[in-house]
Specification:
The chain has 387 residues and is an alpha/beta fold. The chain has 14 helices and 14 strands. It holds the Pfam family Glyco_trans_4_4.
């Protein structure tokens, strides 16, 4: 049985795409006869506070589903203050170094990036001749930060670019969740070994049944992080509600603004349901006609993992984010595309939708695409041959 360590900044009981992705990777490798351990901070995302059950300790080790999980201290923060967020990453990096000093590290290590600084700490401290370092890149930083307006092209940006290049250089294998990520890595290091590792979910296909909704309007749902990048607050203000009722699930930085907007506009058909568990969400999503996957701005290298999760649920999608995600929606006929940032075009697309074209036939076709092309276990088996 081969030992493998996964180092990540996000892991359950935290919610979100990042923690789900690493959880599925860990449990999948365990089923493939790897002895898996996970190194992660004490749970704190997305609220920026250590979860109550984990407070008062600097380290907690547990065995969950035969996986050993080491949770390390960090200064938790989701503050908009860049210095506080930087200190949070540095604090976790310090905890990692301390762990590396006092513990035996396996010869195969998967490191999640971003955060860049955490990945840099791992690549710097863990490089050994006999050790294989695998960098799992889910987003291209600092490029994504520049496109989101979080960075400017100054000295600090140049420093982050150098850290990014160092991480790629020291990695024996780079996993990327999009072809754009792998193209970027290859542009810097043409000989680097890479592997396309999409964020496919791993759950049973639900049984789909015909919906009997007597309402005339289409029910559209958004579920996920209510952050600045997703632009749900602006979406609430920009939608034409003639043909749609908008349901929202999730939490994040824009949550309060969205709740206040709904309160001040009670005549608009917007319903905020708060945050629910992933299992509950899978059940309730089956009741809606279509889901929307928005990004306020097109982010190079980003492919929302919701695409693959919703496909498995057989849920038609309206994609409003640009980039590689558009190609996946279009090539596999998973739904409709509207150009990122063009709200008038988005409203025209919604107003042209009908309940008939969102029915059981469409849902079953989408689910079959997921079964054939987005299979977690097939992808994992191909990855294990590279570990």
């Amino acid at each position: 049985m081969k030992d493998i360590l996964i180092i990540t900044s996000y892991f359950p009981p935290e919610t979100g795409a990042a923690s789900n992705r690493i959880f599925h990777l860990a449990t999948g490798l365990e089923k493939q006869n790897f002895k898996v351990s996970v190194l992660t901070p004490l749970p704190n995302y997305p609220k920026g506070r250590i979860f109550e059950a984990y407070r008062g300790t600097f380290k907690q080790t547990s065995i969950e589903n035969t996986i050993t999980i080491h949770r390390l201290w960090l200064y938790a923060s989701n503050s908009k203050n860049k210095l506080l967020r930087l200190f949070a990453m540095i604090s976790y990096s310090i905890s990692l170094v301390w762990f590396f000093i006092w513990n035996k590290i396996p010869n195969t290590v998967i490191v999640q990036s971003p955060p860049l600084l955490v990945a840099f700490t791992c690549m710097l401290c863990l490089q050994r001749k006999k050790r294989k370092l695998i960098l799992n890149v889910s987003d291209l930083w600092p490029i994504a930060g520049l496109e989101l307006g979080a960075f400017k092209k100054d000295f600090s940006y140049k420093l982050l670019e150098n850290i990014e290049r160092y991480n790629y250089k020291k990695a024996d294998l780079v996993l990327g969740q999009s072809n754009e990520i792998l193209t970027h890595v290859k542009s810097l290091f043409p000989e680097k070994e890479t592997f396309l590792y999409r964020n496919y979910p791993d759950f049973e296909l639900p049984k789909l049944e015909e919906q009997f909704d007597s309402g005339e309007k289409i029910t559209m749902v958004y579920a996920g992080l209510l952050g600045i990048a997703q632009g749900i607050y602006r979406l609430c203000k920009s939608l034409d509600y003639t043909n749609v009722v908008f349901h929202i699930y999730g939490a994040g930085a824009e949550q309060e603004k969205i709740v206040q907007f709904i309160s001040k506009n009670p005549d608009l058909p917007i319903i905020y349901h708060g945050e629910v568990s992933r299992d509950t969400l899978h059940e309730v999503l089956l009741n809606y006609d279509i889901t929307i996957i928005p990004l306020l701005n097109r982010i190079y290298g980003s492919v929302p993992s919701k695409i693959f999760e919703y496909a498995r649920l057989g849920l038609p999608m309206l994609y409003f984010g640009g980039g590689e995600g558009e190609d996946i929606i279009r090539n596999h006929q998973l739904g409709w595309i509207s150009k990122s940032g063009n709200y008038s075009r988005l409203n025209a697309t919604i107003n042209n939708l009908s309940k008939d074209e969102l029915g059981l036939k469409k849902r079953l076709a989408i689910q079959q695409v997921a079964k054939k092309y987005f299979d977690f276990n097939c992808q994992l088996l191909k990855l294990t041959t590279r570990l």
